[in-house]
Write a structure and sequence with these properties.
With about 525 residues, the chain is mainly α. About 70% of the residues lie in helices and about 0% in strands. α1 runs antiparallel to α10. The longest helix has about 30 residues.
């Protein structure tokens, strides 16, 4: 696996992939490729997996108020997605369509995230049901959601337009995922696991457990926010958009039309929506900390799998040659749920009170085997969904003559967020129903046996039960083979013609391009 060199030509990766696959030009140079990898790593260089625990046990916001705040924020998110998507798709600047949002909002977003992790210091003695504390959290959540939505649309669109070559785009995704995992994108989380265990077992912070937790959460939260924010800003300043946008900005009506007639994106959206509708899914941290009292076990059980991890990306081309895109997507996306079934059955031996799920060594072995098996398919999970989404954006351009990355992302995100809203609301109330004590973590007391069992079930088997329907839409995904090759053949010719005519600066030529773009949708309507 090597970083790409600027404008270098190489032999095609696979034979018989069609017209466009044989276009072997590389557009993204070494510096930009390194930036892409660092940017991808920055997305995971955080302790966000501890966010739910942070709000519940460190910031100590009542679970009922959390549910209300999440519901209000989700409603705003739905409204926000609608207008922000239209604004981004209408953006045309000399710096591109997406880069301005990544650059301008980079610093404010980082500041808001730092404030989020500093909230316990802002409200050091506030009660869990304090309305001032609640409204501060709610307003900050809305601000972060608003800025995050614009940046999210821009980020998705930027990565879809960084190169017009689909093979190079897939190669960039694979390189980024490979090197991000290899260089330690999960290092902050692993450090947090160790620190949490040291405090939980009173090796450090003895006699001041609550203050010790407070320091590590705020310190690690602010540190990772600054590092990831600056890395993302650096990438935004050096990258380029290389897929030309239509000269005429699409209207809201055209944006909606481009979503309705985009079969691939509709299928992906439906699949993701059903996948997010996981009513009782729990977190790994809840199980490792509240049941096993061993947060670092998550890192330990992943050691055997880390050996397999790099090879999972080598296996991606092997899977692609032997299986269709939809089969690869299903294998990559749902292999983790399937591998948790034997873990759950094994943990249930002994019942609720004395079950193996409460014992570190047996569960450590079971989870290590599960992680190792799952890692063989990890490359598929990380590469194929991104590839499918980018192809769906190209399909939009092919069928309509214009691209609506932001509106499409808004619609896709809207459907997912509706299901996630219900899921998070029910999950929070479910934790309250099983008797989860928000004070036990910092006080060093244990959850009840019944609560521990349900946390184990929420972590392992329950997500699979509620997400199995999401496989069905992927069975109808058909953007592959000859249809995909024909699409890229026509897109290549169309983009070349548009670039040459617009480059002349002739008003008549530009008007001609506009007319061509407007007529494309009618020509493709019968497909």
């Amino acid at each position: 696996m090597f970083l790409a060199k600027k404008e270098k030509t190489v032999e095609p990766v696979q034979k018989d992939e069609g017209f466009y696959a044989k276009q072997n030009r590389r557009y993204v140079g070494t510096k930009e490729t390194v930036g892409y990898v660092i940017f991808d790593m920055a997305q995971s260089f955080n302790i966000n997996s501890y966010s739910e625990r942070f709000i519940t046990t460190i910031f100590k916001l009542d679970l009922g108020l959390q549910a209300v705040a999440n519901l209000i924020n989700s409603i705003w998110d739905i409204i926000n997605d609608t207008f922000s998507g239209a604004i981004v798709d209408k953006t045309r600047t000399r710096w591109g369509k997406f880069r301005p949002y990544l650059i301008v909002l980079g610093i404010p977003a980082t500041v808001c995230t730092c404030i989020y992790w500093l909230m316990p210091a802002i409200f050091p003695n506030a009660d869990s049901t304090s309305m001032v504390k609640f409204f501060f959290y709610l307003v900050l959540a809305i601000l972060r959601e608003t800025g995050g939505t614009f940046r999210g649309f821009a980020q998705t669109g930027m990565l879809a337009t960084i190169t017009p070559n689909p093979l190079e785009r897939t190669r960039l995704i694979t390189q980024a995922q490979f090197f991000s995992g290899f260089l330690g994108e999960k290092l902050p989380q692993q450090i947090m696991d160790i620190l949490v265990d040291l405090i939980g077992n009173e090796i450090i912070g003895k006699g001041a457990r609550e203050k010790a937790y407070l320091r590590i959460f705020m310190g690690m939260g602010v540190f990772t926010s600054l590092v990831s924010g600056l890395a993302a800003l650096w990438f935004a300043t050096l990258t380029k958009e290389r897929v030309m946008q239509s000269i005429e900005t699409p209207s809201i009506k055209q944006g909606i039309k481009s979503i309705i007639n985009n079969k691939p994106i509709l299928l992906l959206t439906l699949s993701d929506t059903l996948g997010n509708f996981s009513l009782f899914s729990g977190s790994k941290q809840d199980y490792f900390i509240d049941v096993l009292n061993f947060a670092t076990l998550g890192t330990i059980v992943g050691i055997p799998g880390s050996i397999v991890h790099p090879f999972s990306y080598v296996l991606v081309p092997w899977f692609r040659k032997r299986f269709s895109t939809k089969v690869c997507a299903i294998i990559g996306k749902y292999s983790i749920d399937l591998t948790y079934i034997p873990v759950f059955l094994f943990g249930c031996i002994g019942g609720k009170k004395n079950g193996l799920y409460k014992k570190v060594i047996p569960m450590g072995i079971a989870l290590a085997l599960q992680e190792t098996c799952y890692m063989f398919f990890y490359g598929l999970k990380k590469v194929i969904p991104n590839e499918m989404y980018n192809e769906a954006m190209d399909y939009c351009e092919w069928k309509n003559g214009y691209r609506t990355e932001a509106m499409t992302s808004a619609a896709k995100g809207l459907a997912q967020k509706l299901s996630s809203t219900v899921s998070n609301f029910v999950k929070t109330l479910f934790k309250k129903a099983i008797g989860y004590d928000i004070n036990s973590y910092t006080r060093g007391t244990a959850q009840s046996d019944s609560t521990k069992f349900w946390l184990f079930a929420m972590f392992t088997v329950m997500p699979m039960i509620t997400t199995s329907l999401s496989i069905i839409p992927l069975l109808f995904y058909d953007l592959s083979g000859k249809k995909r090759d024909k699409m890229y053949e026509e897109l290549l010719a169309r983009r070349a013609l548009m670039a040459s005519e617009v480059a002349t600066g002739d008003a008549e030529a530009i008007e001609k391009v506009k007319q061509q773009q407007m007529s494309i949708a009618d020509e493709k309507e019968s497909l």
